[in-house]
């Protein structure tokens, strides 16, 4: 276990943007995570928990504390139950499930990042969400003087649309791993379903530029003002409940291709802000503010960020 100093966070973000972390550490098991937290507390350092860096915009200032990136691996199968460490990537998780003839996670094909991040934000797409198959989540509560391991069954995780108890208790818990209840399936059919989702993403998302996925959550149709529902009803989709795609709202606000410095609202998928030319964090933040302002003005709808803006 090694503590590194002045580590560029741009190298740990899909955006390739961000200043330095004062300290950076990647513990490999629960005991090491506990020791790292104890060390940071002894020095009164703030702690930031980093997963795959696929949904975070770091600031130019970086982080004047400890960035803790749990490298918690391990994949196990027991019948139709799959157990995974929080540091396992979603791609690895899906590959393991398919290799063991277990279906139920195919909707996540192409989903970036680690399992820990997916659980924190209850990641979802194509009508599925992490909460649909999670049976329990183990985490480390670091809010008290001493850390303690907590295991919660699904209802206690309080999953909601792109939310969970772990996100609400931001900075107070570190997700360690989870168990999933899957179903027996055919290996080739599972892989085909996963590849279809990956292909869809490649065709419709701007994967040729650094990005951190959808910048904003889709808008629950119930949150749309009554006076605007009729004009937006035709675009509503299930995700997994009725929502208005934010990409549509941004496009209708005529923001496709609008840029600021090296950042641009993607013409291909307007809910992505891409790093086209060495963008700075301020460039991205400016486009986030612009999208929120223009969509609010045109549709009376308030956009909510899906990503972390640090």
TrEMBL record:
Superkingdom of the organism of origin: Bacteria
Cofactor: FAD
The keyword Plastid appears for this protein: no
Metabolic or biological pathway, per its Swiss-Prot or TrEMBL entry: Cell wall biogenesis; peptidoglycan biosynthesis
Localisation per UniProt entry: Cytoplasm
Family annotation (PROSITE patterns): FAD_PCMH
Keywords recorded for this protein, A-Z: Cell cycle, Cell division, Cell shape, Cell wall biogenesis/degradation, Cytoplasm, FAD, Flavoprotein, NADP, Oxidoreductase, Peptidoglycan synthesis
EC number of this enzyme: 1.3.1.98
Main location: cytoplasm
Domain FAD-binding PCMH-type: residue ranges: 16-185
Keyword Nucleotide-binding: no
Enzyme class at the top of the EC tree: oxidoreductase
An annotated Gene Ontology molecular function: FAD binding
GO CC terms: cytosol
Enzymatic reactions: UDP-N-acetyl-alpha-D-muramate + NADP(+) = UDP-N-acetyl-3-O-(1-carboxyvinyl)-alpha-D-glucosamine + NADPH + H(+)
GO biological process terms on file: cell division; cell wall organization; peptidoglycan biosynthetic process; regulation of cell shape
SUPFAM superfamilies per record: FAD-binding/transporter-associated domain-like (SSF56176), Uridine diphospho-N-Acetylenolpyruvylglucosamine reductase, MurB, C-terminal domain (SSF56194)
Active site per database record: 162, 214 (proton donor), 306
Family: Belongs to the MurB family.
Function: Cell wall formation.
Name by which UniProt lists this protein: UDP-N-acetylenolpyruvoylglucosamine reductase
Recorded name of the encoding gene: murB
């Amino acid at each position: 276990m090694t503590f590194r100093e002045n580590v560029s966070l741009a190298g740990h973000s899909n955006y390739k943007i961000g200043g330095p972390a004062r300290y950076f550490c990647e513990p490999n098991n629960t005991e090491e995570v506990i020791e790292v937290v104890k060390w940071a507390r002894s020095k009164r350092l703030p702690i930031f928990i980093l997963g795959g860096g696929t949904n975070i915009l770091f600031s130019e200032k970086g982080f004047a504390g400890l960035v803790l990136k749990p490298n918690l691996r391990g994949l196990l199968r027991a019948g139709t139950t799959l157990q995974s460490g929080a540091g396992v990537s979603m791609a690895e998780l899906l590959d393991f499930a398919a290799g063991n003839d277990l279906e139920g996670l195919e909707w996540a094909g192409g989903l970036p990042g680690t399992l820990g991040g997916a659980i924190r934000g209850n990641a979802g797409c194509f009508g599925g969400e992490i909460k649909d198959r999670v049976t329990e989540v183990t985490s480390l509560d670091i809010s008290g003087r001493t850390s303690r391991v907590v295991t919660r069954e699904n209802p206690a995780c309080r999953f909601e649309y792109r939310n969970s108890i772990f996100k609400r208790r931001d900075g107070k818990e570190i997700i360690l791993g989870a168990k999933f209840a899957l179903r027996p399936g055919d290996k080739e059919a599972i892989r085909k379903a996963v590849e279809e989702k990956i292909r869809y993403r490649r065709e419709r998302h701007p994967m040729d530029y650094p990005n951190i996925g959808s910048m904003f959550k889709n808008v629950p149709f119930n949150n749309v003002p009554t006076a605007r529902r009729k004009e937006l009803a035709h675009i509503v989709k299930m995700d997994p409940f009725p929502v208005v795609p934010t990409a549509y709202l941004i496009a209708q606000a005529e923001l496709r291709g609008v840029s600021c410095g090296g950042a641009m609202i993607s013409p291909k998928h307007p809910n992505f802000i891409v790093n086209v030319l060495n963008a700075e964090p301020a460039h991205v933040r400016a486009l986030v503010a612009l999208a929120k302002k223009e969509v609010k003005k045109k549709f009376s709808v308030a956009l909510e960020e899906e990503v972390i803006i640090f």
